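Contributing: when you submit paired examples, paste them exactly as shown. First protein:
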Amino acid sequence: MKKIQLFSISIMLLMSSFVCNAQTEKKETVAATRIEAYYFHNAARCVTCKTVESEAKADLENLYGSQVTFKSLNLEDDATKAIAKKLEVSGQTLLVVKGSKKVNLTNEGFMYARTNPKKFKSIIKEKVDAL
């Protein structure tokens, strides 16, 4: 009887380890497939800085809906510093991230967000679709 109980417990432990591994792999896969956009900025902002943020956010929502998340983060907030360090950001930056891939759209944002928003939207689409 004791052998049967010991065998049953061993089987249950073995099966539970497989279930735990499967759940961990699923979480890692979801994180690697999620696309996130970050706009890092300072507290003092010009019109162009605000326009880059609003155009990027609107374009991403129009093109991808909830598939791409957008976060605007103030570099001067203590909570933001850890994310900025992780993504190796030190100044105003528009960054699209998927897993370990990063696409920096800062230059394009500052060049086209105010003067040619349609071109900026097409650049965003091109870069995000490539991810």
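Second protein:
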Amino acid sequence: MSDVQERIDSIVKGGRVVLFMKGTAQFPQCGFSGRAIQVLKACGVTEIKTVNVLEDQEIRQGIKDYANWPTIPQLYVAGEFVGGSDIMMEMYQSGELQQLLDQ
């Protein structure tokens, strides 16, 4: 595992709810990242570890390789990859995301 992959792995496993996004929770830098934050807040999540991929080019590319997922944002819950904003929205609408976050 490369240094960047090890850093990402440590971040993913270091928090219960981790969101790799463009910008911050307070100031998202793209619509998809903003929607991801809104969905998590709608689920009642108060503690979100966010990683601004715009601040670190290695993480920005590395996270895509880590999950084998081409887009950002990426949500991880309890160390497991959940998906991007579209998947989060679908899971939220079906109630599945709330159940996952309540575990």
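If you have annotations for the second protein, write them as plain sentences, like these:
The first helix runs from residue 3 to 13.
The helical segments are 3-13, 31-42, 57-67, 85-94, 96-102.
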